[in-house]
Amino acid sequence: MIVHRRFLLAGIISLILWISASSSQAAVIERVVAVVGDHPILMSELRQRARPFLLEIHSKIPTEAQRAAAESETLRQMLQRMIDDQLEAQAAAKMRIRVEAEEIDKAIARLARMQDTTVQELLSEVLRSGMTAQEYRNEIRRQLLEGKLLELRVKGQVRITEEDMRALYHRLAREERRTLGYAPQWIVLRIPPDASAEVKAQRRALADEIAREARTGKDFSQLARRYSDDSTSRQQGGHLGMRKPGELEVAIERVAIALEVGEVSAPFRFADALIVMRVVEREQSRLGTYEQARNQLAQRVYAEKLETAKRRWLDNLKRSTHIDVRL
User: Fold this and answer.
1) Which pTM does this prediction carry?
2) What is the distance between the alpha carbons of residues 126 and 134, in angstroms, rounded to a whole number?
3) Among 22, 82, 192, 319, which residue's Cβ finds the most Cβ atoms within 10 Å?
4) pLDDT (tens digit, 9 = 90+) per residue, 63-90?
5) What is the count of structural domains for the chain?
6) Which domain, by its residues, includes 58?
């Protein structure tokens, strides 16, 4: 009888330990990483949502430390996205906004047509990315739901002006210019390290005069042959040949990028020299003229303003909703 009780007691203890271990393991697996209102977001949900990106990290990043850092940042960004999604879902529920299965089917078919493929091929590509078909449908549902919410709450706030489009065009032109090859000329006036203040002033005055003459039509090549202290380019009239972005020093390239073709810079100091620069040629822009790009500019301005209005709306929702981030 005593032996039987000992076996029974041992069995109960083992069961308790097993339940305790299982509960502990479940707590780790189902860790709450955020609470939005009264809705918890679990670590398992977060990792499942981020799975395609995590797979890509593990396939492309070689070292463990870099992978860990990339994974941590990916999870952080995905959690913020899931919080936004939950805020939108709660707002939609209050407004009785829904997305039907038929709408999802139509959206997927539309995406397939846009990519010149079939729905089956599109879904096959989705599966190869690490996402299931249902997860993809859920993502489409979230996008459609967001679109309906923005239509009601945000789109009326978005206005596009001619000034907005021109500002974007000039910004894109500046950004593109950093990627285009260019052919610069320069005139280099060396300043000895031990030069007196008087000598420095003379060199500055000469650089100013050279720039003035070049800007009023004097041949830049002749000026370079006459004045430049750069022996490697002087006989070529200061021509440096066609250059790719990044080939010259950053400070010099910054001046070149700001110049229009044929424009002459003001003298600027670099290391032990004063430099006057001119851009002879630049690769052709792919932007086209403002008028040619007008429709695309309008679409991009609209998208950027819509995103700004959406962030403002979501920020307002966050201020009125209890959010506890625990990641």
Assistant:
1) 0.62
2) 10
3) 82
4) 999 999 999 999 999 999 999 999 999 9
5) 3
6) 30-155
